[in-house]
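[step 3/7] fold_predict: job queued, chain A
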Amino acid sequence: MRNLTKIMTSLLAGLVLATSLAGSASATDPTIDAGAVGKITGSGATFPWNQYTKWFEYYRNYVNPSKFGTSSASKLVLDYTGGGSGAGVTNFKGSDRMKDTQMFSGNDGVLTSTERTQIDTALGVANDYIVIPMTAGPIAIAYRFDGLKQKVSATSTRTTTATLRLNGAVLCDIYSGTIKKWNDPKIKALNPLITNLTSSDIVVNGRSDSSGTTFIFASYLGKSATAAQKNCGYESNFVSNTNTAFSATAGDFKPAKTQPGTYFGAMRAAKGANAIVGGDGNAGVAANIAATNKSIGYVELSYAAANGLKSAAIETKSKFTTGANKGKYNYVLPSASGASAALAAAVSVEDPINPSTSYVQPVYAAGTSSYGIVGYSWLMVYKTWVSGGTGASKGQVQGLVAFLNWALTTGQTKLYTSDGVVGYAAIPSAARTTAVAQLHLITYDGTAIWP
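[step 4/7] structure written:
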C-alpha cells in the first residue's frame, strides 16, 4: 500500500508539472506552411547540447513528424553544431547569419557591451534579436580518484567509497595554483572522513575554447570564494560575499568566457603548479578527466554521468537554522532537484530573461538544498527575417518558432537523462512565459510569424 501511495503521488506530481508547463503555451500554436523544407541549424554552447539533441529527436519523431524529418529535401531538419558559447556569439554576427546554417546561437555567458554593439552593427539595426533562456542545469565538479575511501563514521574502522566535498574557496585555490596536492590541509579539513588523500598532484582541467560553461564556473567562484581571493572572479576588483543581487554593479566581479589555462596560467606558474589541461567543449573536458587518475574539472552534469565520473558535493551558501546540524553548511551533489532549488531562489532576485543588461547566473543561491553551480543556457534568435538571397525561407523560420514554443512549454518535461541521471532542469514558469511572448516579435517580410 505504501509503494502504491508513492507511485500515485509521483504520477500526480508529474501530471501537475506537465499541466503547468503545457498551460503556459499559447492557445494557438505557431503554424508552418505546407511544403516547408530545409535545415534549421544553430551553433554555440556545448552545455545544452545533450538537451537540444534530445529535444530535436523527440520533436521530430513524436510531436511534429509530418513537418520534421532527417532529410532537408523533403522536410524540415533541426540541427546544432556546438563549438562553444564564444563561437556561438561569433557566428551570430558572422557572414552566415540568418542562413539555414546559422539561424540561432546558444550562449551560456552574458553578452558584453562590445558584443552587443558588434551584433547591432552586423545586423544594421539595434537590438534586432531576442535572447531567451531555454534550459538550465548544474555544473558538476567532476573528478577521477581511483580507490578514494572514507570511514563510514568518525569512530568506525570500516570504509566505503568516498564522496569528495569542496567549496568555492578551495576550488579557487586549486585553479589558481595555491593548492597543488590532494592531501592539502584545506581539502582534508572539508573531508575529515576520507582516509587516503595522497600527496599526488591535482591534475586540473578546464576549457580550451571560449566557453559559457567557464562563464558559469567563473560566476560561482566570484560569488563563493573569500574576499581575499580577488582573482577568482576573473576580475581583480570584485568584492565577494557582499552582493545582495545577481546583477553586476560597480565593484562587483565580472566573469568571462576566458580559458582557465590562459587566465590562471601566470598565477599557477608563479606558484610552481602544473599548467591546466585544456579540453574542447564539455565533452572534451569530461574525456580528459576520465582518462587521467587524480584529475578534476568542471562539466555539465550530463557529461559527467555519461563518462562515469564522480561529482563532488559542493558546500551551500546557507547554513542549517534548525536541527542537529544547526549552524553547519550542507554539501549538495549536482542534480536536477538541486538545480531547481537554486533557480527558484535566484529568480526571486533577478529574472533571467534579459541577460543582455545583467550578469545573471543562478550560482551560489541561498538555501540548504540549492546546488551552488547552476547556469541558464540562452538562445539568441534574429527578429527580422526577409526573403530573397541565401537567407532562410519563411517555412524554416516558422519551423524554428514552432519548435521553440514547444521546447519552452511541454518540452520542459522532456529532460535529458544519462545512466539514470537527469542532466538538466526546467526553467522557472515566469521566465518561460516571457520567453514565449518574445517569439511573437519574430517577423518575416514585415509580417509576424506567430501573430
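[step 5/7] annotate
The longest helix spans residues 2-23.
Residues 168 and 224 are 5 Å apart (CA to CA).
exit 0
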